[in-house]
Write a structure and sequence with these properties.
CATH topology: Growth Hormone, Chain: A
Organism: Methylobacterium symbioticum
Low-confidence stretches: 1-6, 193-200
CATH architecture: Up-down Bundle
Pfam family, one: MFS_1
Protein name: Putative transporter YycB
Helix content: over 70%
CATH superfamily: MFS general substrate transporter like domains
Number of domains: 1
Mean pLDDT: 86
GO molecular function, one term: transmembrane transporter activity
Keywords: Membrane, Transmembrane, Transmembrane helix
Length: about 400
């Protein structure tokens, strides 16, 4: 008598469960920015401390990304995603304690869960939806952006609801993370087969591949642009004269603008012979709209922020799509994802830190904007290699 095969879930239900997990992979990163002024006022946190606060979570994303393949081999990607979602919920809950230590610790713990999920999900998409990789990557990144928008736009009203407590406003996002964890639990089954053993793309092969390094460079630099804006755009808007509520609302519009691009760009790019043109176009849009947000007329802030969000969402969705397209199978996607996100997020963590330090040194937004321009040009240069029709 042979053992029964694990029951394969409905693709629709699996996709819904995956989207519920994805929704909770950005609020931990976008909820601090709208409350940064209140946190600094309530705790005495300086500009350098704020820069470190925006940098540390991105660094821990990279650390978790390196651990992703080991977790996948240990308990499988399905259970690994469940673990990641639970860790995100735990990190968000820590913030309820208030004070700087729980704030920093919660950010790092939540980022570990986010980074782990970010590595495991591309491989799962490649395994479960091999013929719809572009569409599913687009839906996944669109849902990430909707979660980011909710975090940016609703956190200040939550602070008012909780009597001005920024700690409770941040911790409230643990509730949807718990719900996402419960929704994924039915799909957290053992892997059906040791996929890694059949793959031609092993970890040493990836680390020796120039193409893999080009993908990593593009992923890291475009991510740096996004995390700079997650952490600093509310303060930029506040300095331009917007109230805390209005700055949070406009920052939420930036994340809303990411959603359609996160769906459309991967779907479109996956059909192209190569992705170099799409990458240059979306990076150019991101840079142009950033300059309008920071230096353009105030009446253009809202449309410019929406356009900037479209650019950021397109860059991120394109980065994930390139990871999937540059390999042949699920294990290859997991190996390249671990490298591109592990090393990439380590690179990306320097962006928010450098941006904050440049703001402190320059006393305005000209010097930080010069850094943003340099990072954009670097991402464009790496995209010329990463977007070619090649496979690792």
């Amino acid at each position: 008598m042979t053992a029964a095969s694990p029951r394969i879930p409905s693709p629709l239900l699996l996709g819904v469960g995956l989207m519920l997990v994805a929704f909770n992979l950005r609020p931990a990163l976008t909820t601090v920015g709208p409350l940064l002024a209140a946190i600094r006022m309530g705790t005495g946190l300086g500009t350098t401390g704020a820069a470190v606060l925006t940098m540390l979570p991105v660094l821990f994303l990279g650390i978790a990304s390196v651990l992703g393949p080991r977790v996948s081999r240990w308990i499988g990607p399905d259970r690994g995603i469940l673990l990641a979602s639970a860790v995100v919920a735990a990190g968000l809950s820590l913030r309820a304690l208030g004070g700087l230590v729980p704030l920093f610790a919660g950010a790092c713990v939540a980022a570990l869960g986010i980074g782990l999920a970010g590595v495991l999900i591309p491989g799962l998409v490649k395994r479960e939806f091999p013929g719809q990789a572009g569409l599913m990557t687009g839906l996944y990144t669109m849902t990430l952006c909707l979660g980011a928008a909710a975090g940016a736009g609703l956190t200040v009203p939550l602070q008012d609801l909780f009597g001005g407590s920024w700690a409770l406003a941040l911790a409230a996002w643990a509730l949807p993370a718990v719900l996402g964890t419960l929704a994924w639990a039915p799909f957290a089954r053992p892997s059906r087969a040791p996929v890694a053993a059949r793959s031609e793309v092993t970890r040493p092969v990836v680390w020796r591949s120039p193409l893999a390094w080009q993908v990593t460079g593009f992923m890291g630099l475009q991510s740096s642009l996004a995390y700079i804006m997650f952490g600093w755009v509310p303060l930029i808007l506040h300095d331009r004269g917007l109230s805390a509520v209005d700055a949070g609302f406009v920052a939420a519009l930036m994340s809303v603008g990411q959603a359609p691009a996160a769906l459309l760009v991967p779907t479109f790019a996956a059909r192209l012979r190569d992705q170099r043109g799409a990458a240059l176009a979306i990076i150019g849009l991101t840079l142009a709209t950033y300059l309008l947000v920071v230096f353009g007329p105030l009446w253009l802030v809202v449309p410019a922020t929406l356009g900037h969000g479209f650019g950021l969402g397109g860059c991120f969705g394109l980065g994930l799509t390139i990871i999937v397209l540059r390999v042949r199978d699920a294990a290859g996607a997991a190996a390249l994802s671990a490298m591109a996100q592990g090393v990439g997020y380590t690179i990306a963590s320097l962006g928010p830190l450098g941006f904050g330090l440049a703001h402190e040194i320059g006393g305005g937004w000209v010097l930080p904007s010069t850094l943003f321009c340099a990072l954009s040009l670097g991402a464009a240069a790496f995209s010329l290699g990463a977007g070619r029709n090649r496979q690792v």
